[in-house]
Design a protein that fits this description.
alpha/beta, Amidase signature (AS) enzymes, eleven-stranded mixed sheet, two-stranded antiparallel ribbon, 13 helices, globular
């Protein structure tokens, strides 16, 4: 039963708990046992609140269901505040920092009845494409521990993929939710910029914000698209503290019928593997079968190169000219006449540890970074696997505020493709 519980989606767990078919204590205990079994190998959870989680589970069992995730455990990336839990964010100078308040997104999941298990590993200050730091060490991919889960939400993706948590939250400013989701075979979404409050999300400058860090968003990860969609619905909307969040309602998920879909498999910067191209083509075919109008079309180029310039400008702050070019790229993208863009997340499956920045290679996140510049919503879903048994996801990018379109497309692909391409975890 324990193994079944740790392989069960969050939405299903919530239904089982609400129907008294299983207790919240049983669910939390099963996930704590799973963390104990795998964390020594993958090093994903860096602050575990076992006593607090069990106490919350007992309290949940003693009352009527209090929300759509009543009794369901979750985890969060270590750059997101959780009251009473250490928040080193991978740097020695923060090793003793313990927030006394939850980030808005953590508080909202708790209000929905969810139970926080703990915090997960990330690169120093929550930014980077490989999850390792001198405080907690390196996190490994549960499909192959010689490989990275990516970054910067690598610990979050690894523990969810390994069955230690049904769902959780990370942050993404260029690839940091989507890349780990791809490397670990998960569903995820980087929402439209300013849909979800970043109150309580910290980097090396402190509290981030819509003006100081326009690209970073809180995103959701899980093993099913339905779980990701529910998490986004629960954490979205103004909180009265993040001045950048717009009160735009999140539409219900529809279907792919009638969507105009652009498909591209090679952006000219990083050539994808054969298996990656096949995964994108299978995803496109699935959407075509569901009634979408699918065409080969490449979005405007230049977003990744512009992103690199933005990164290089951080010491002095972006110039007005650079910001104007950023604005121009956003406008060029808005003129691209498609409802959805289907592309690789990354040119290949999970790389070996230490191989994320190859000599002479421009930063390899070129498929994801442009959509952080635009602020458009971008989902991931598994659509295939490599000969070595590693998962391959695709990226689904919708127009601003149409997170529902990205997730609906992901749900269609998951229904048709994901059940047919399982991979055995080694952790």
């Amino acid at each position: 039963m324990s193994g079944e519980l740790t392989a069960t989606p969050a939405v299903t767990l919530a239904g089982l708990i609400a129907g008294r078919e299983v207790s919240a204590v049983e669910v939390v205990e099963a996930h704590l046992r799973r963390i104990a079994a795998v964390n020594g190998t993958i090093n994903a959870v860096v602050a575990l609140d076992e006593d607090g989680a069990l106490a919350a589970a007992r309290a949940a069992d003693a009352r009527a269901p209090s929300g759509p995730l009543h009794g369901v455990p979750f985890t969060v990336k270590d750059n997101i505040c959780a009251a009473g839990l250490p928040m080193a964010i991978g740097v020695p100078e923060r090793a003793g920092v313990v927030p006394d308040e939850d980030a808005t997104v953590v508080a909202r999941l708790k209000e929905a009845g969810a139970i926080l298990l703990g915090k997960t590993n990330c690169p120093p200050y929550g930014g980077g494409i490989e999850t390792a730091n001198e405080v907690y060490g390196r996190t490994s991919n549960p499909y192959d521990v010689t490989r990275t889960p990516g970054g910067s939400s690598g610990g979050e993706a690894a523990i969810i993929a390994a069955g230690g948590s049904p769902c959780g939250l990370g942050t993404d400013s260029g690839a940091s939710v989507r890349l780990p989701a791809h490397f670990c075979g998960l569903a995820s979404i980087k929402p439209t910029a300013q849909r979800v409050p970043v109150t309580g999300v910290i980097d090396d400058e402190g509290q981030i914000g819509a003006l100081g860090d326009a690209r970073t968003q809180v995103g959701a990860l899980a093993r099913s698209v339905a779980d990701v969609a529910l998490l986004l619905r629960l954490i979205a909307g103004p909180d009265g503290r993040d001045g950048g969040v717009a009160p735009v309602p999140l539409a219900e998920l529809g279907d792919a019928d009638g969507l105009r879909v652009a498909v591209h498999t090679d952006n000219g910067l990083h050539e994808p593997t054969h298996e990656t191209v096949e995964a994108v083509e299978r995803a496109a075919a699935s959407l075509r079968d569901a009634g979408a109008v699918v065409e080969d079309a490449e979005p405007p180029r230049g977003g990744h190169e512009l992103t690199i310039e933005v990164w290089r400008s951080y010491d002095d702050g972006p110039s007005y000219r650079l910001l104007r070019r950023w604005d121009a790229f956003r406008s060029e993208m808005l003129a691209f006449p498609y409802d959805l863009i289907v592309s690789p997340v990354f040119p290949e499956p999970a790389r070996k540890h230490g191989d994320m920045n190859r000599p002479g290679e421009i930063d390899p996140t070129s498929y994801t970074t442009p959509h952080s510049l635009t602020g458009w919503p971008a989902a991931t879903v598994r659509a295939g696997g490599s000969p070595a048994g590693l998962p391959i996801c695709v990226q689904l990018v919708a127009r601003p505020w149409r997170d529902d379109v990205a997730l609906a497309a992901a749900l269609q692909i998951e229904r048709e493709l994901s059940p047919a391409a399982p991979a055995e975890r080694t952790a």
